[in-house]
């Protein structure tokens, strides 16, 4: 039977997985093509404008689009040392 991991080991595993995911995001959006795609997403996904719409349900749809673009930008700018401290404090 597999031995359970300690909280410290689980935190380290979680950190390593997020660190690898950040590298994957940087590889994807760090190229010239990736930068163009990200700029296009910023234009289309309400990064620099309001998501409000008077059309029924449209604001929620727009917020969903915005969430995806914001998540990408957050992954690209994530400070790994701050994250490591945060994970260890949980």
Topology:
Blueprint: H1 7-29, H2 32-44, H3 58-77, H4 80-89
CA distance, first residue to last residue: 27 Å
Q: What's the overall geometry?
A: elongated
Structural class of the secondary elements? mainly alpha
- Tally the helices: 4
Reported for the largest beta sheet, the result is: none
Radius of gyration: 18 Å
Low-confidence stretches: none
Order of helices and strands: HHHH
Instruction: Specify the helix fraction band.
Output: over 70%
The tally of beta strands, per DSSP, is 0
Mean pLDDT: 93
Beta-strand percentage? under 5%
Keyphrases for this structure?
single chain, 90 residues, mainly alpha, 4 helices, 73% helix, 0% strand, elongated
What does this structure look like?
This protein has 90 residues and is mostly helical. It is 73% helix and 0% strand. The chain contains four helices and no strands. It has helices spanning 7-29, 32-44, 58-77, 80-89. Helix 1 runs antiparallel to helix 4 (80-89) and helix 2 (32-44) runs antiparallel to helix 3. The chain is elongated. 6% of the residues are buried.
């Amino acid at each position: 039977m597999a031995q359970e991991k300690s909280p410290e080991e689980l935190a380290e595993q979680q950190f390593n997985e997020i660190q690898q995911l950040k590298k994957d995001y940087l590889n994807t959006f760090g190229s010239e093509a990736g930068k163009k795609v990200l700029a296009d997403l910023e234009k289309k996904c309400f990064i620099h404008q309001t998501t409000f719409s008077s059309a029924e349900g449209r604001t929620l749809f727009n917020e969903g689009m915005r969430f995806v673009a914001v998540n990408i930008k957050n992954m690209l700018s994530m400070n790994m040392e701050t994250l490591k401290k945060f994970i260890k404090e949980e």
